[in-house]
Design brief:
By secondary structure, this protein is an alpha+beta fold. It is built from 5 helices and 10 strands; from the N terminus they run αββββββββαβαβαα. Strands 1, 2, 3, 4, 5, 6, 7, 8, 9 and 10 form a 10-stranded mixed β-sheet that branches. β2 and β3 (about 50-55) form a beta hairpin.
């Protein structure tokens, strides 16, 4: 809607996205997988596309409820990482090489690793949600698609400055905190109702 675009148009230039950055969605995008989403870019390549994980959409399921060949404590949450491959389990963590084959990202984060090592950790008394987070599915963009969406101002690119907040994010409050940190020009986003009605 042009009225919305005129009111909330941000003139600030965008930074070029990099792996480890965050994507912050504009306040009126209604698509369920991206509503008030903050996405961690886990792989970004201008020639091969982009992969990310929605950090703040917690599902109603626990991790234990979707595991087939392993068990873990029932209180560990499962997040919806995006609309692609919901049957695929991904995990990010801050535990480095404790999990064999883990891949380093940025900002002290890692992705993946030997799942037997992960299950052993989850069943130990060391488990801490600040150190590992699980996702069903992910977000994906083909070559040039994310660049176009950024130019259309669907997303704002920013750095990940607080790893612990990203690991413990579960809902819209994380989106609000990130928007606050974007600067004064984005304050109008915080005034937007989630489901606006215009006459």
């Amino acid at each position: 809607m042009k009225l919305i675009n005129d009111i909330f148009d941000i003139k600030q230039p965008q930074r070029e996205p990099q792996s480890g950055d965050l994507l912050v969605v504009e306040p009126f995008l209604s698509e369920v997988h991206f509503r008030r989403a903050v996405i961690l870019l886990i792989d970004h390549n201008n020639t091969e596309g982009t992969v990310g994980l929605v950090l703040n959409h917690r599902s109603n399921l626990s991790l234990n409820s979707v595991l087939r060949n392993a068990t873990c404590p029932s209180h560990i949450p499962l997040h919806i990482g995006g609309p692609v491959e919901h049957g695929r389990l991904l995990y990010i963590h801050t535990l480095g090489n404790r999990f064999r084959e883990a891949i380093a990202l940025e900002n002290g984060l890692y992705i993946g690793g030997n799942f037997a090592d992960v299950v052993e950790y989850l069943n130990s008394n060391e488990y801490d949600e600040r150190h590992i987070k699980f996702f069903a599915g992910y977000c994906g963009w083909t070559t040039g698609q994310l660049k176009k969406e950024i130019e259309e101002k669907t997303w704002v690119v920013t750095t990940l400055d607080n790893t612990e907040a990203a690991m413990t994010a579960h809902d819209d409050t994380y989106w609000q905190e990130i928007v606050k940190n974007l600067g004064e020009e984005f304050r109008s986003w915080l005034l937007c109702p989630q489901k606006p009605h215009f006459n």
